[in-house]
Every structure is written in C-alpha cells, then in structure tokens.
Input
Amino acid sequence: MEYIQQILFAIILGAVGWLIYRRIKLIRDTIRLGQPEDRTDRPSDRLRLMGRMAFGQKKMFDRPLVGIMHFVLYAGFLLINIEVLEIILDGLSGQHRMFVPFFGTWYHYIIDFFELLAVGVIVVCAIFLVRRNILKVNRLQPERHRELRGFPYIDGNVILIFEIVLMCAILTMNAADTVLQDMNSAHYPLTGDYLISQYLKPLFAGWSEGALIGLERGAWWFHILGILAFALYVTHSKHLHIALAFPNTYFARLTPRGEVRNMPEITKEVKLMLGMEQADPNEQPAEIGRFGAKDAMDLSWKNLMDAYSCTECGRCTAQCPANITGKLLSPRKIMMDTRDRLEDLGHNMQANGGKVVEDGKTLLGDYILVEEIMACTTCNACVEACPVMIDPLDIIMQLRRYKIMDEAQAPASWNMMFQNMETSQAPWKFSPSDRFNWANNLRQ
Amino acid sequence: MSEIEYKVPTMAEMAANGETPEVLFWVGCLGSFDDRYKKVTVAFVKILNAVGVKFAVLGTEESCTGDPARRAGNEFLFQMQAMTNIQVLDMYGVKKIVTACPHCFNTLKNEYPQLGGNYEVIHHSTFLQQLINEGRVRLEGGGTFKGRKITFHDPCYLGRANGVYEAPREVLEALDAELVEMKRIRSKGLCCGAGGAQMFKEPEPGWKEVNIERTEEALNTGADTIAVACPFCMVMMSDGIKNKERENSVKVLDLAELVAQGQGL
Output
C-alpha cells in the first residue's frame, strides 16, 4: 500500500512537472518571437531595482493597507513552499514529516509560523474576494472594463478561492495529524499541537484512528494535488506574475520615462534626405522592414515578457486619463491583447511544428483597435502605476509608428501638423519669420 | 523697476560680437507664437534681465524640437527636426539650455543624445528655484500673494517623465502663497489631455474631456490661481476654466508669470 502511494505520487509529480515544463517552454518560445533588444547593461542597478520592486513590492505599498495584505499572500506563498518541499519529499520517500529530525523542537515553531501565514492568507483572500465581488472595486469590474469579461473575471476569483481551500487543507491535515499523535498512532512523529490547528482538533474528537488516518491522508493528497494543479493553472493564468515579476523588473527600462525608444534604422535615410550624407552608389540600399509594430513579433521580446507578467490588476487603467474619461483605451487591455495574440501564436507554433503559419490576423486591428492607440496622451501614468514595471506606452508608440509611417494613415489634422512642421518648423501654420516677434516690444 | 531696459540678444548677435551666453533660452513654438504663452516668454525674459543672467535666444533660427511628430508616430519627421536643430545648436557651441516647455525640455534632454546632441538642459521651474535659492531672485513676500490659494498642476513631461516635482512647488512656496494640492499630484498627477500630440487632433469619443476632468479637480481645491509650468497645460487648463465659466474668478498662470509678479516686473 505504501509503495503504491509513493509510485502514484511520483507519476503525478512527473506528469505535472512535464506539463509545466512544456507550458513554460511554449511561453519562452513565444516571448522569443519578439525582436532582439539588449537589456543586460548595468546589472547592479537592475538587481537593486528587482530587489526594490519585486522582492520589496515598493509600488504595492503606495496604498499601504492593500500593500500589507498583498505582502501576506506573497510571504505566505514563498514560505509555505518550504513546507511543500517537505510534503513532496515525504510523498516520494513514503515518510511522514521527514524534516522533524533535522529541525528538532524548531520544527514545531516553523509549522506554527506557517499556520499563522495560512490564516493570514485565508483572511486576505476573503477580503480580496469581498473587494472584487461585494465592494466592487472599480478597476476590477467587468461591467466597467470590457477586457475583464469572461475568463479574466473568473480567473481572479478562482485563484483566491483556490488559495483559501489549499490553506484550509493544510490546517485540517495538521489538526488530524496532531489528534493521531495524541493516540500515539504509528507513523505520526510527535511534534505537539500547532498554533492554529489545535483549535480544529475538537472537530475530530472521538473519530476512530482509521477515520483520522483517512482524513489526514485525504487532506494531504488533496493539498498536494491542489498545489500541483495550482502550479499548472498559474502558467495558464494572469497569475504568472508571481514568477515573472522578478525577471520583468530586472529587465525593465532604465532610461528616463520621457525618452521614447529611438529608431536608429531610419537615421541614415534621414541624413540622406537632409543632405547631411551622400549616398554611396556602390552600397545596396538597406532593407528596412516594417516601420513600427503591426503584430506581436514586431515588438521587442521585453514587450512580450511584459504581456505575460501582467496580472490584470488595472492600476494602469485606473490612472489612464483616456480611460478615466471614457475613451476606449485601456493600458491593461493593451497588455492582455498582446498576451492573447501571443497565446494564439503559441498554439499556432505548436500545431505547425514550431513555426508560425500566417493566420491572417495581426495584433493591431484584430486585437487592439486603432481608436485605442490614438487616444493615448503618452502621459506615462500607466507606466508609473505598474507594480511590476510593465510599459504599455512602449507598445502603443510602436503600434502608432506602424499606423502613421507604414500605412501612412494619420488623422487629417495630424497630417496637417506634420505638414506645418515641415514647411513652417512649427506644428501650427505660422510663418517662421514671425517666430521672434514676441520680443518686438522688448527690443525697441 | 520699470526703467529696466530689456535685452533679448540672439545667438547670432552674440556670436558676431564674439560673446558666449551662460545659457540658451529655448522659447518653443507656443512660447513664440501663442498669444497667451508669449506673455510667459516675456515674463521669463524680464526675470533673466532683472537678475542679470547672460542669456540668448535663437530667434528665427529656432524650430520645433519634433516632440509632437515623434509622439504621433512620425519618426522620420522627428529625426529631421532633431538633426536640423542639433546642427544649429552645435554650430553655436551651445552647452546649456533652459526652456519653459516640458516637452521641449524632455526632447532636448533625453532624446537628442540618441542623435548626437548632448546639452545640459534645465526646465525653467528648476532654473527659477535655483535663482531663488541663490538669492538672485528676491520675492516681495507678503504683498501680492499673501493669503491667496494657489494649486499646482504637474506637467507629465516634467514630473513623471523627468522626476521634477519639488522645484515648481518650492518656487510657489517662495511666493508666500498657500499651496493647496489637488488629489492626483506628483507621480499620480492627471494629464491635462494635450500630450502625445492630442493637442493637434480631436479627442476620441468618450464621456468627458480630460482637461475638464482636471479643471474640476483644480477648482475643487478652492484655489484662485492654477499654476502651470507647461504651455500645453496652459492651453488645456485655460480652456477648462472657460468651459466652467470661471475665468473671472480663477486665473491660470505660469510659474514665470507668478515670479515676475512677485518681483514687481
């Protein structure tokens, strides 16, 4: 019987591990569809940034109460994973609480601490469910934000409920375990009661040893299967930020917010146009691909990593002046659309032996609408708001470049502005010779 | 003070006399052509004269930095404007630039280096703050602004884009007025709605204009003066005040105008 459990456990662990590996590989392959861009300069600055933003969750503490609550989930997740390691090793070796001999009396306190975290996680998840569904925090409402309709809305609730159920399983398991310890049941090393689960013990008073073992094993299996299912689910969900927040902040842009990505590939042509350089008759004209970005693979790999790092919290959209005033633009939707496009491209690659086959769709047009990108004031509020340093504006700018330069489809008034700039060196139709007239009264 | 003779030398004139200014005052398109913002340009030039800063302007040799073209996605036009300007600036050997426009400031400071133009660029809010701190600008505290409520609207390209939040506030505090803040300020400041070349086209359909949203927030502070530090914000906030029919009770003024008033210029 013991061996069957161990073998079963190993098979499940291996299968889930393989599924997660496949999924991670697919995500990595789709991110690699993006254009190359070097984000490895200034490694010590990057490490510090990651420390502050991802480990320290600096932006989350802009609103201290939400920041603390989120930190409880984060700490709970990280630390309870230490117990999951023990559970996995127990499962593979057929032992029970194999860390007890290593930690001695400390083991008891460690589990006490984990139980405290577990209660913290349950409380915070419950509060978050209330915020989403009863208090109806604006940025989380599908009625107000169309990008949340369907799976994204369910996704948020599923994760919170998942976490509550898993934490309850841990506490049940510990309570049953300590009741069994009181009975001196074989296979249950004595650790003594735990901080929280001791209060659950009365629920199981009077149960037979067999029933308690059944409950303890049931809760153990339920918990670890839940954890594995959760791990797999996360890779398909918005919740991937728990892993990607770290690389995403590490590789974030270090240049000033106001600096728009340069296009060095057109500089030579501009110099020729201005007569600053002479064309070399022997040189083959350089093949300039697409101007700006029409589809996901025209974007930088970092834009694509941004898309997978987004957990759809909507802090960007809540700060966006266009969205606040009812325009179609939502920076969160820009990120979600980019990820949806990547998901489609990923499945496309899987179905076609690792190559993307033309599917007649593009990011701009089929996912993101022109009306959305035209409404952006480039104010950087979305970039500033993102706790994991996602840059929706960089994507918007590249899509605009495609629309304006490649398709030459600017609004008429923008074309007028361009024309004015070319002829009058100002975006308005003023005579360049009048530029200094403001000083006439001062310079008499 | 009215007997001061104001000088506005151009780089060409200075170069002809073999002189070099301390700083180039980059006026910007709205500062050159817009009737309202020309007053800000004049106010700033008066301050520079009164303080005795050796400055010059480019006059008719100045040209749009290309910011609206770049933000509208027209990178060709931006690079053409930028390279032309860099040629002019380098021809005069310009080292330091001050400008009242955060868009010009950001482009000159952060984007011209991409194309080989490297200058020390400073926004007029920081420049004014330095003059005040150095004691070169002395404000007649108490008089004009005593007891008045002023609110400050953060320009996106000064604040979030370049992290300048304190300088304009320190200038306002030196005026001895009461600074009353809006709800969304500093890194969370709400855009006026003009950036990203929105100034040059009709807004997309929505339920409200961005400048109205921001004007309402400014009016809710009870301030009688909305201080701005950007020509685009000046247009948007002034339009907002007109839309709310409050132009008689609430003024939209640039930092330079407030300082010039404080100096009695």
Remarks:
- The first strand of chain B starts at residue 23 and ends at 26.
